[in-house]
Amino acid sequence: MSSHPPSSATPQAPRASTFRTLLRLLPFVRPALSRIVFGMVAALLASVVALIIPLVLQRLVDGPLSSGDSRQIWPAFFVVIGLGVAEAVMIMARRWLVLKPSTFVEADLRNTLYKKLQDLPVAFHDRWQSGQLLSRSVSDLSLIRRWLAFGIVLLVVNFLTIAVGFVVLFFYSWVLGLIFLCASVPIWIVSLRFEKRYSTIARRSQDQVGDLATSVEESVHGIRVLKAFGRGKHSLRDFAKRAEDLRGTEIEKSKAIAQLWLWLLLVPDVAFALCLLAGIGLAANHQLSVGQLFAFFATATVLRFPVESIGFLLSMTFDTRTAVDRYFEVLDSVNTITEPENPKTIEDARGRLEFRATHFRYQDSPDRVRDLVDGVDLVLEPGETMALVGLTGSGKTTLLALVPRLYDVTGGEVLLDGVDVRDLSREELRRHVGMAFEDATLFSSSVRENVLLGRPGLEGDEAEAVLREALDIAQASFVDDLPEGVDTKVGEEGLSLSGGQRQRLALARAIAARPSILVLDDPLSALDVDTEARVEAGLRRVLASTTSLIVAHRPSTVNLADRVALLEDGRVTAVGTHSDLIATNEHYRYVISSLDDDDNDLHSREEVHA
Ligand SMILES: Nc1ncnc2c1ncn2[C@@H]1O[C@H](COP(=O)(O)OP(=O)(O)OP(=O)(O)O)[C@@H](O)[C@H]1O
């Protein structure tokens, strides 16, 4: 799993404005846009209705209440009731209109992100912490959904309500309206300052959530190691520190919100008091009727919720802006493993593999270090089995990864039947090349699905035959003893199986793909000597028609190969049969003698292979 930032420590690119950032959601929101707009209209109507109620009250106070004509009270009463019901219906309509489409937008955003993650190269995943990706695809997206369903609608509507409300206040009394307007100026200043401060804290908080998710993911993933080494407490300390960092940031966030709230609560109260003072003076001088004064305060009360909620809605908007930023950081990542513009095809794959002056270095390797793969020239003829041998860390796994383009060469070429692998479509390349890794990864599905992963179109008897043959060659008949045979679910990452069992299934998966090139990264390391010998015998049958490049960590694996290539200082310095190289190459003898093998006698199992 990746272990490097981007995390909270990542320097940020220059920030686009909040509006521009949020606008990037538009392509995803477009299908839901009409409903969201209608939702806003419904919410706005609800606000307008709420603002009309004080008008009726004014008529009531200045009319029947002051004249004492009780008959006129009832119509006003029913009008107020009617307006109240209309407001409730509008609010319900708003919720109905926006809730459902926002879930579709969220699902679309999530699927797009997942697709992108599948498409991005291994080099991307090397750099990104899994928890950061997890938090982006779960909590950030749910934030965006809530903002779409609720935040943006109320933000727009509340601003409009406040604007309309101010006009109404001016309508009742321009003096009181002006006082109210001037008194609210500090709110706008504080809100603008809030944006800057809050956005920075929100970003830190969301990144720290990602760090925390990485911690959980790593400790769950490595629970066996932690338990075996009694590192639970250490891991807890590490986790607690990250949780504490997040708590600190959340407190900072709350303080910023609390400061804004202080102004949002204080300013209307002060404005109310000032207006009350001025209003009583105006009413005493008969410049304002009691009904108008009453309606003014009723309207100002209606405006209280929109004004107060602005703080919450702004913080929600800035949280969402951060979530959108984080989301698009992944989506904007460039996939360096590109599809060729004019892909070539290999009609009849023969399986000739050639490394021609191949160079490769990892993107974060320092300039002073020479290329890890530093000019490899190597040819594997069709049907040939080649073992790749070298000291640990010499770049064997890396060289193998260049064949299916898990990484792209940084110089030279890798050719398949004379075609540069970068000129083949990725889909075609993956059809020609099958791969099995030392750390066999299985998925939480059935044995059958895991083994036939590379043959998605296969069904019925044909699928069964391929499955059985692959399991047979990989010596994986243990699957028949599982509770539901090949339909048994192997659990998360196949952890219900032993390491050797997982390796055999991963090997069966590579075999079932029926590639013309098989790339095996020490696929038998977890097997006992006898099982390995049987697998080797099975492989020999398959490998006869398939070109294979096998990283060998045990002399017994070398035994499978027609020839052996020696990787030394980033180059292939010798190619030959095992016995030739033993006889002629000192470094090869040194490497072989340093390899771990339970069975040092290479020839002791020849009868098995015969
Ligand atoms: N994703 C990566 N990013 C940066 N450096 C890496 C990455 N993967 C491997 N390396 C470095 O490249 C070098 C070669 O690694 P590689 O796994 O290819 O060697 P190897 O010969 O297969 O080793 P072993 O025999 O121990 O399996 C190592 O020094 C390793 O630290």
Automatic annotation (TrEMBL):
Subcellular location per the Swiss-Prot or TrEMBL entry: Cell membrane
Main location (coarse class): membrane
Domain ABC transporter: 353-594
UniProt cross-references to SMART domains, sorted A to Z: AAA
Taxon lineage: Bacteria, Bacillati, Actinomycetota, Actinomycetes, Micrococcales
Residue ranges constituting the ABC transmembrane type-1 domain according to the UniProt record: 37-316
Membrane protein topology class: Multi-pass membrane protein
Protein name: ABC transporter ATP-binding protein
Keyword Magnesium: no
Keywords: ATP-binding, Membrane, Nucleotide-binding, Transmembrane, Transmembrane helix
Domain of life: Bacteria
InterPro entries: AAA+_ATPase (IPR003593), ABC1_TM_dom (IPR011527), ABC1_TM_sf (IPR036640), ABC_transporter-like_ATP-bd (IPR003439), ABC_transporter-like_CS (IPR017871), P-loop_NTPase (IPR027417), Type_1_exporter (IPR039421)
Record has S-adenosyl-L-methionine as a keyword: no
GO molecular function: ATP binding
Origin species: Frondihabitans cladoniiphilus
PROSITE patterns recorded: ABC_TM1F, ABC_TRANSPORTER_1, ABC_TRANSPORTER_2
Residue intervals passing through the bilayer: 32-53, 73-93, 147-168, 174-194, 260-284, 290-307
